Amino acid sequence: MTPDLESASDDVLIAGIAAGQAEALTRLFRRRQADVYRFALHMTGATALADDVTQDVFLIVMRDAARYEPGRSSATAWLCGIARNCVRQRIDRDTRLESLTTATENDATLPIIEPDPIGEMSRVERIAMLRRAVLALPVRYREVVVLCDLEELTYADAADALGCAIGTVRSRLHRARAMLAVRLAAVQAEEERKVTNTRDRALDVPVPQKRCMA
Amino acid sequence: MTCAAAREAILDFARNLSVSEDVRRAVDEHLGVCANCAAEFERQRDLTAALSALAAEAETWQASRAIEERLREVFIARIPATPTPRLESKWTDRWIYAVATAAVIALAVWLGSRPSTPASPESVASTAASSPTSPAVSTPSVTEEKKPASSKTEGNVTAQRPVPVRAAAGRRAAPPKQVRSFEFVTLPGAAGLPDLESGSVVRIAVPVGALPEYGLDIVQGGSKTTVNADVLVGQDGLARAIRLVSAEESATQETRSRQ
């Protein structure tokens, strides 16, 4: 690996890719593949799809590196924007994911509920449940949560990745978090109902009597 | 601060984004007096903590290692297609055609100015031998099977012709009895030209009757029929050498071009 490429900025690496430098592509991939993969996996919930999206993103980078505009946004935002388009194309092609998305689209109108749904759960359960809740969000709300809360992009970078205004990002994020709270509360209520039922059934089971052998 | 304004600021506040001190103070004051907004703030703060935990878990996620190698292979495979090779570009082709046309015209003019008596092979050989530094011999960029001039035997007419070059790679060596006709012969007018630095080989049709002018053998056919010949054109667009193309070689190249 060329030493100057190791410390080169993302912008320099993208320019190197445009100039046909294979090492620049390798360096950018190693530096940014995890960002793209995480975004894709948060968005799709499937590792194979996330791999495909990651590969598609860097194939597009090869093709469109010369069109990248340094300074307009961060390279991560640019890559996430490409990944977002790839994910949307995949979702459009994949009926399973599409049905999942449309089935939850109406949840955007649900109100915020008061109970705290995540206070009592264990950490692992909470993370698994939250991941499912994020996946169940409609795509346009899922995108902002993943970009802003999970990938920690700024509002400006998220807006650039999504091709919308900063105000739109903020309003969508506000809405998405409200929907997440609703979903977490619903899951929490379901979990509590299951626990209650299990406890009730356990109490109803007759205790076997010991036989007297004497 | 109203509840609507507070809810707007609570999002950034709960997400640990930097907010101005004025906003922070106003939100704190509002949360102290509004239970609903305070509950909303707590909910948003817990959600941020949960999302941060999910983000932390995702820090270890990595794409498949095989992708990097696949991408690299694709990228390297694309690289040759991007820059246009110097001798294969559209403009270079046009340049070659223009030069070839000029060479043919120059050849025709030169033939017209020559006496009608065919020159003997010896005279052609002596003419060629008089220019030992002929450009055709020192042709690094065009010659792909260049033979050293010292390998030629003195006294042999072909050996005295300083153009032992092949125009293209992969061609078979001509049979010994045809060597004289199918190797490059320096054109008489090329003796005083600058050294050949680069060039191209252009195929033309030459009347059989004109072949003796170059010391080339006429095997058969009338003087009005034509045969294929390769003309070596230098970097300056001037013809340096010529050679006949065997019928077998012509047929082979036509087959390749069809394929």
Entry summary:
With 214 residues, chain A is mainly α. Chain A has helices spanning 3-6, 10-18, 22-44, 47-64, 75-93, 95-104, 123-136, 139-150, 155-162, 166-204.
Shape of chain A: elongated
Q: How would a textbook summarize the main sheet of chain B?
A: 4 strands, antiparallel
> How many strands, what sense, and barrel or not for the largest sheet of chain A?
none
Extended strand count of chain A: 0
Number of domains of chain A: 2
- Percent helix range of chain B: 40-55%
Radius of gyration of chain A: 23 Å
| Number of discrete helical segments of chain B | 9
CATH topology (fold) name of the largest domain in chain A? Rna Polymerase Sigma Factor, Chain: A
Through-space gap between termini of chain B: 80 Å
Based on secondary structure, the structural category of chain A is mainly alpha
Strand percentage of chain A: under 5%
**How confident overall, as mean pLDDT of chain A?**
82
Structural class of chain B: alpha+beta
Q: Based on Cα principal axes, name the global outline of chain B.
A: rod-shaped
Percent range for helical residues of chain A?
Answer: over 70%
CATH architecture of the largest domain in chain A: Orthogonal Bundle
Please give the alpha-carbon distance between the first and last residues of chain A: 84 Å
Order of H and E elements of chain B: HHHHHHHHEEEEH
Q: Name the beta content range of chain B.
A: 5-15%
